[in-house]
Specification:
The complex is a heterodimer of chains A (229) and B (891).
Chain A lengths: L6 E5 L3 H13 L3 E5 L2 H11 L3 E5 L7 H10 L3 E6 L5 H8 L4 E4 L4 H19 L4 E4 L2 E4 L4 E4 L2 E2 L4 H12 L4 E3 H9 L7 H15 L9 E4 L3 E4 L3
Parallel strand pairs in A: 1-2, 1-3, 3-4, 4-5
Antiparallel strand pairs in A: 6-7, 7-8, 8-9, 10-12, 11-12
Chain B lengths: L3 H4 L4 H10 L5 E6 L6 H14 L4 E5 L6 H7 L3 E2 L3 E5 L2 E5 L2 H7 L3 E4 L15 H10 L3 E7 L7 H8 L9 H5 L2 E5 L3 H9 L10 H7 L2 H30 L11 E5 L5 H15 L3 E7 L8 H16 L3 E6 L3 H11 L4 E6 L4 H7 L2 H8 L4 E6 L16 H5 L2 H24 L10 H11 L1 H19 L11 H49 L4 H16 L2 E8 L2 E8 L7 H13 L3 E2 L11 E7 L2 E9 L11 H65 L4 H28 L8 E3 L1 H11 L9 E4 L6 E4 L1 H18 L6 E8 L2 E7 L32 H11 L3 E7 L4 E9 L3 E2 L6
Parallel strand pairs in B: 1-7, 1-8, 2-3, 2-6, 6-7, 9-10, 9-12, 10-11, 12-13, 20-22
Antiparallel strand pairs in B: 4-5, 14-15, 14-18, 16-17, 17-18, 19-21, 21-26, 22-23, 23-25, 24-25
Helix pairs in contact in B: 2-11, 3-4, 18-19, 18-20, 19-20, 19-21, 20-21, 21-22, 21-24, 22-24, 24-25, 25-28, 26-27, 27-28
Classes of the chains: A alpha/beta (229), B alpha/beta (891).
Chain lengths: 229, 891
Amino acid sequence: MNPLAHKVLVADDEGPIRRLIRIALERGGYRVVEAATAREALNAIAIDRPDLVLLDLGLPDRDGLEIIPQLKKAGAAVIVVSARETTEPKVAALDLGADDYVTKPFDTEEVLARIRAALRRRLSEETPSPVVEVGDVVIDLGLRQVRRAGEEVHLTPREYAFVAELARHPGRVLTHAHLLRAVWGLGHESDVEYLRVAARAVRRKLEVDPSAPVLIRNEPGVGYRLMAG
Amino acid sequence: MSSTREAERPSPDALLREAAREGRGRLKVFLGAAPGVGKTYEMLTDGLARRKAGIDVVIGAVETHGRAETEALVDGYEIVPRREIDHQGRKLPEMDIDAILARRPRLALVDELAHSNAPGSRHPKRYQDVEELLAAGIDVYSTINIQHLESLNDVVASFTKVRVRETVPDRVLENAEMEVVDIPPDELIERLKEGKVYVPHEATRALSHFFSKSNLSALRELALRRAAQAVDAQMLDYLRAHALAGTWAGGERIVVAVSELPGSEGLVRAAKRLSDALRAPWTALYIETPRAARFGGAERQQVAAVLQLAAQLGANVASVPATRVIDGLTDYAREARATQLVVGKSTRSRWFELRHGSVVDRLVRGTPGVAVHVLPLAESTEKPRLKPSASAGSGAWGRPLGYLFSLLMVAGVTGLGISIYALENLTNLALLYLIPVMAAATLYGLRTGIATGLLSALAYNFFFLPPLHTFTISDPSNIVTALMLLAVAVVTSQLAARVRLQADLAQRSAGQNAALAGFARQLTGLIDAEELGRTLCGEAGRLLDVEAVFLLPGEQGLALAAAVPPENKLDAIDMAAAGWAFDHCQPAGRGSETLTASDWLFQPLVVGKRALAIFGIARELDDPIRSDQLPLLLSLLDQAALALERIALEAEMAKVSQLKERDRLRAALLSSVSHDLRTPLTTILGSVAELRRAGAADEALVASIETEAQRLNRFVANLLDMARVEAGALKLALEPVDLTDAATTAVHDLKQALAGHPIRLEVSPDLPLVRLDPQLFHHILINLLDNAGKYAEPDSPITIAAQRRPDGLTLSVLDEGPGLPPGEEMRVFETFTRLEGSDRKGGTGLGLAIVKGFAEAMGLAVAAATRDAPRGACFSLLFPERLLVRGNEAA
């Protein structure tokens, strides 16, 4: 096995799930470490220093949410796995610093794609790129400019701030609260209608077909993500 | 006859109250108009002064609310640690009453008298803890805000619009020393602005209103007035106990004298108006004269009705025995320190007044300093007066035994006199006859006494006055002697009768107090309403010598919950009367003014303005209740009503916590089922995908495993969703949703299932946002699209269209296919309904039911129809206007 390959920690109390993910990950060329409890996961973080943790929220000994900050502090990307469809735990996980989430039952191919994106982002966030390209749209964070098919698109300051915040975390879901705080400031965390209106305006200016958006994806009840890469 | 001497004798009730205080701790209450006036601070300061004076002071419970000045004061004290009470996993610190009792300080500081203890404490209320401390001889300092006083709760709520649930019965403060902690409203508002007033988090909303200046002024006035009243009541007790005569300044007090005469109702109403005008407490007083013993049914009923009316109108009701109405009235007025006396004047003939003198004149003379209101007793309502029943004869004329006894006494005395006379010729032998006269008058009353006096005079005349052995009297001075014997008989019997009445009164009221206290004790332990009914029936039956029934409201109206004797049954008329009494919070049935055909008198148990239960009494062949028993009955019912309310509140609390527990279990079950079913499904689906990628097995087999597993997964998801809908456990997280957003996301997520169907999106991006739960709405769209995909012709387009309408917005999902069976369009939303011949399409028949359940939970309406050209089904969601979010100019 390639000793330089990324190392992924699978923290899930279900043996069959861990086995399945291991097979998929090893097929994708990753090294895999397993943990069945939060305690084991924290030990593995210290000893094996994984690059990414696939974290099931329903661990038997502790609430998965509690250990996200520790995992992040150790420098690992975190993708949360939730068995429930409700959005609250996902939003909470994202707000605690998790990079992404998947819901059971998941498609292993989808999981691999999310892992790839998260790892790539981890690299790019260390050396942030001033220019983000999505399809024929270029978001130039240095020039504070957005171009579509080479032509500059005029955005209001708020619309630009919204796009820029998404572009700083390409491919990652940003929660409503996160975006509202970043664009409108503290105290506006629950004014979701601001976001809806901004997203609508930005799409009209950037999407080829605003009724079939491909740039900015809505995650119902959670947030928005820029479909980069 | 003047009764001044006797009126100054200490009243037994007042002495009892004084005596009860001996050996008991004293309560001092710091009364405030509103939170933040500084009661706790004042209490702590006062306590420190006592501590400096060498008195053993501890803190039982003090809430500093984090105020620095207050906390600094607390440091000077010994604090009895609080006890942690475990309640549903939370630890609540409560005052440790056992620790304080064991510690036995001289004085304990206990903040917030109105506090409710955590369930599982010894007493539900803190004031009960305080009462126990007082009973153990420990002095207590405590604090309370005026709105927590039971009797003022309504008044305060009426103008502040804030009702507090924690109240303290007024009796707790009855013997307490009260100190009003008073600061002007402006200063309090200032303190509030500076954040110096502790306000519980949930109360912040009501705050601005509550702390308005007008409210604070009104509260302040109430507090000051209540403290003044307390002083009055204590002064009254002191007066009664020490029989100090004289007029003391105090508030207005109204006494209305009622009688069996028709027209008394008018007096009662007049007194009520006077009381409203003067804002003074009032008492309806019935003087029970010996004449009342001869009353027939009609008169008794009349008195009882008048007293009941008064009680309903908020009067205290008193029934006092006295030989003459005028004496009873003046005595009571003096003792109760009445300032206003309302009496009726019958339109009697002038002749009657000349003969008897005007009662009113004597009343005015007998009650100096009291305003006497004289109202005519309404003539028109006068019913024919009933003659006193003749059956009372033996009582009026005395017992035959009495006459026999006096005869023997007179004979004995005469014998004794003759023997003394034989020895020496004494002239004042007449004095000997005083013995039988006084004895007979004392023991057997006026008539027997007078008869004995006559007999004695005759015997004396016959045996000792010259000429002997004749009834002739020669010496006029001897006539005087005979008359004197008669006079002695009259005076003695009057005095004796009065003493007997006083003794009766004392005995009866002591008996009533003991009965009430015993009843109250029994009530405290009760935990269910039927038990309370049995206790009430038993006690009332015993004390009033009546048959009793107790009815509680159930799902089908009132139902008999207890009866004494237990075999008592109520017929339709009785039930109607009971129902009326319950609905109107007024007595009904025999002896009342309503539905008198019933043999029972039904009294409601009222708390606030609501009846909680009905208590009925009846007596064989007689009226259910005598007027003198009415006050006792009303007291019993008051106590029972309060106990019943306590029981109801306890039951309600238990029910709420039960419901909470059930909700928690349901949520836990749903989440564990979703976890336990999803986890294996995830493994199966993932493994199949891996197998396929590895190409290690028969492609067709793998594909069928995958399809079936996916179907199972959808089924599980639907079952869970349906369970959430039917359990009513949908928790909505509403936020403004962009319909375009929602539609495109749903289409994206269902891309695979809809493969082959082009999707047309006819949703204008200018539509208003809609306030929805995005997750539930996503499910709705997924289910609708999935359904369309199943029934649409292959490769036919599926359209999502939204339109603005005058009353809101519609969003429809349209397919091109067979449509819906005519007349059964709406049936598709029922659980497990599948259209004819649709089995082969697969599906659980739950999808559309979930759509309906979710939609209705969010306030949307659903509709289904078949359309022509092109033919197909059309499912619509209707968003009412109130869900639309206006003002999208934010960006």
